[in-house]
């Protein structure tokens, strides 16, 4: 069962319930859904949905991968596939494929994305793809494991980086808030905190 337009719409609505200030930026996704565009296909222009993973280790560091095609350090993620049932599942699949970390040692934080990002993608003549946009639904995961065998066709390196390495101030704030909330929940349940407290002030 492939990801449906209704699932994308519902997931987006859940995110906007928590972050209503993002409605203006993400309105383009709603508009394309209303037009009947298939946002699960990478051939859909001017943009389509992708799924990303924000993986946090026990020290509160975030996993980054060195993407071969762009030469940039990015968060794990990629295009949707017909075998994906949900956006969360797609993000987990991409995470496992690219980093070699098995799914059974990775725990999703929530069914709702931690962040939805709209960003431009350069034209790729090798794939006959014009410039377009990705609507990246990013989900938070936690693990105590390290990376395994990287997907060398797409990824050449991986590194755990501190929170302040996240350049997007909105994403950085959302991660910090999630870490603080996770620590509060752990304290209430008599568990050790996920990571050291993060300051939510300052960008």
SSE map:
Blueprint: H1 5-18, H2 23-34, E1 47-56, E2 62-67, E3 72-74, E4 77-79, H3 87-99, E5 106-108, E6 115-121, E7 132-143, E8 155-161, H4 169-188
Parallel strand pairs: 1-7
Antiparallel strand pairs: 1-4, 2-3, 2-8, 5-7, 6-7
Count of discrete domains: 1
Supply the CATH class. Answer: Alpha Beta
Indicate the overall shape: globular
Radius of gyration: 17 Å
CATH fourth-tier homologous superfamily: Nucleoside Triphosphate Pyrophosphohydrolase
CATH architecture annotation: Alpha-Beta Complex
The average pLDDT is 88
Structural class: alpha+beta
Description of the structure:
- With 203 residues, the chain is an alpha+beta fold.
- The protein has a single domain (5-163), classed as Nucleoside Triphosphate Pyrophosphohydrolase (Alpha-Beta Complex), CATH 3.90.79.10.
- Helix content is 29%, strand content 25%.
- It contains 4 helices and 8 strands, in the order H-H-E-E-E-E-H-E-E-E-E-H.
- It has helices at 5-18, 23-34, 87-99, 169-188; strands at 47-56, 62-67, 72-74, 77-79, 106-108, 115-121, 132-143, 155-161.
- Strands 1, 4, 5, 6 and 7 form a 5-stranded mixed sheet that branches.
- Strand 2 and strand 3 form a beta hairpin.
- The longest helix is centred in the last third of the chain and has 20 residues, at 169-188.
- It is globular.
- Residues 186-203 have low confidence and may be disordered.
């Amino acid at each position: 069962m492939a990801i449906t337009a209704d699932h994308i719409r519902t997931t987006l609505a859940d995110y906007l319930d928590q972050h209503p200030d993002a409605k203006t930026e993400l309105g383009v996704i709603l508009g394309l859904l209303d037009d009947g565009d298939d946002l699960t296909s990478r051939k859909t222009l001017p943009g389509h949905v992708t799924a990303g993973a924000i993986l946090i280790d026990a020290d509160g560091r975030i996993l980054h991968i060195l993407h071969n095609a762009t030469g940039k350090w990015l968060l794990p993620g990629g295009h949707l596939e017909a075998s994906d049932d949900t956006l969360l599942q797609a993000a987990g699949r991409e995470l496992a494929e690219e980093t070699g970390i098995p799914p059974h040692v990775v725990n999703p934080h929530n069914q709702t994305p931690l962040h939805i990002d709209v960003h431009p993608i350069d034209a790729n003549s090798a794939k006959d793809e014009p410039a377009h946009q990705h609507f990246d639904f990013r989900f938070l995961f936690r693990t105590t494991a390290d990376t395994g065998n990287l997907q060398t066709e797409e990824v050449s390196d991986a590194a755990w980086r501190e929170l302040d390495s996240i350049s997007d101030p909105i994403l950085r704030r959302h991660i910090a808030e999630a870490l603080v909330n996770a620590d509060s929940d752990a304290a209430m349940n008599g568990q050790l905190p996920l990571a050291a407290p993060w300051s939510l002030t300052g960008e």
